[in-house]
What does this fold into?
Amino acid sequence: MSVFCGLDIGSLATKGVLLKDLHPLAEKIIPTGGNAPETALSLFQELLEEVRVPAKEVKAVVATGYGRISVPFATRTITEISCHARGIAHFMPQVKMLIDLGGQDSKAIRLKNGKVLDFVMNDKCAAGTGRFLEVMAQSFRLTLGELGSLSLQAKSEITISATCTVFAESEVIGLIARGLPKEEIARGIMNAIAQRMAGMVNRLGLEEPLAMSGGVAKNPGVVKALERELGTTILIPEEPQMIGAWGAALLASENV
Amino acid sequence: MNLSNFVQSKLQDGSALRLLRSPLIYRFLSLFLGKQSPSVRFSFHLARDAYLKRKPVAFASLFFPTELVYALGMIPFPLEVIAGLISSMGMAVPFLKKAEEKWYSQDLCSFHRLAMGLALEGYLPQPDLVLSLTSLCDGSYRFFNNIAREFRVPHILVEVPGNGKAKDREFLASQLRRARAQLEAHLERKIAASDWQEVFHHSNSLREELLKISSLQSQVPCPVSGEAALGYVGLIFTCAGSPWGSELFASWRESLPGGPYFEKHRLFWLHLRPYYPSPIFQFLRERGVSIVGDELSSYLWKELDPEKPEESLSSKIYSNFGLGPIQNRIFSILSLVRERKAQGVISFSHRGCRQSTGGAFLMKEVLKEEGIPCLILDGDCVDPRELNWEQMRTRIEGFLEIL
It folds into this structure.
């Protein structure tokens, strides 16, 4: 039996996929926590236990994500850029451009047949990432999903002028304190993240079909804001957060 | 005894300020000089002559033609190169902070900020004057103007206009003649024909050495370390016109290891590199990346003619393809990329450097049309606080995966 594993160790969540002949045996997400190597090992073991496969049956493990270098049992490390490209090509082969919005970074990737042609990513700043959204949701005392849904109720919007996450948080707290409509503030937050991301997409030159992966793709508020900003429809795979791990597992199977 | 380590330890314990101006320390260090590399010996002589004021000292901007300085028996003290050197010793941050405390914004080029920090802390020798060009670096002449005011010495500025057409070249030659006259008056010394002959002979010998290195860089696999070549860039602009130039580069060329070389990818580098200790080049080496050239050490000038000194220097300045319209830079780099058989380009976008970062996008577009991937790597050459290695690592790794 040829089993392959892909592990995507992100800043907030670690995702794992076990594949056999391109069919998923198991998929799982756990919080990364403070010890990425331990989390990766524990997720790997959980995946194997779930399907009762001994570790020796796994032909290759590809680690990706920011914690990829902390996985001593990985056969190979590949960047999340290549893994997300490979992963999305598996589910949506027609996609020419991918937005990967993760916990602490964001990327725009131009691709062809699952291969990366070019990419841009954020630099040194968490504005425009999942972390930005988390901080904003905390200001509202809402979950990420609730914040997204709230933004969809807005008829108009309030502009969030600060780019920096910390300054934007104080701006949002100030707007809430002034009693301004929360849904309009929420939409302003979604627009702020969308504008930043759209800037990256436009640097590469928008190509369609455009898809989105990463945990933030589950937030309808951000997706709608991005669609408005880019003037196009964004395709969302069924499990956007798992795309990197899927890509890693596929690349593991292709490189043996 | 390792001279570099000695200097570093003295900078760290704060005694360097006193030692830099002590004749005894130079006498002591000279006992160990014989076994050192030419670049260390050159640095020693430069520091000794400047701090002990054995000769008149000119703070010269990076692209100023040092042949004019050497012809007058002066020492060109290269502030940007010194900033890179201090950064390579891991000592940049206190001096950068000193400049920032005096309102030098973090948006300004860190080479200049660091050099200003050194000036404010009293680490620089007293110059006799300051020389700068308006070419390439847009912040340079303003920085050198401030430096001249700080040290209360004259600032001679040479304007480099337009595109390098015949009229521009004539104008620049006239500017250089004016600068020469000002320098001669200030130093009360005339440049003789024999001075030009000697200085141009050294500059032309350096050029010959650079041509030899350039041809080695086209070999597959490339025997020249791109990291070292980027480290030597400052010396090209400091040694031109001195006997050290050809000696230093010949010695480096002769010391190149004979191989075998592990070469998986060949990349061309744009702008300068980070000089502070960082894992970047080890990371590239481990992945079989050869840096087969960089733009600043790849521009070569025509042989200088001592019969027409200012015209020759004007032509040398204009041979830098970074001058004039962006097309000059783009197409020269494209031709170098082909000549060196590079598969990709890394454009290091030094924060605060307008002329380099400004053209990066256009450069990337043209390279893309030619099927040559280009990674724009944002960072800083001197300020280690600007390095976010994990982000940079992912970018470089992702780029290598594209190749």
Observations:
- Residues 145 and 378 of chain B are 28 Å apart (CA to CA).
- DSSP finds 20 helices and eight strands in chain B.
- Chain B touches chain A at residues 361, 368, 373, 378, 388, 390-391, 394-395, 397-398, 401-402 (CB under 8 Å).
- Chain B has two domains: 3-190, 194-402.
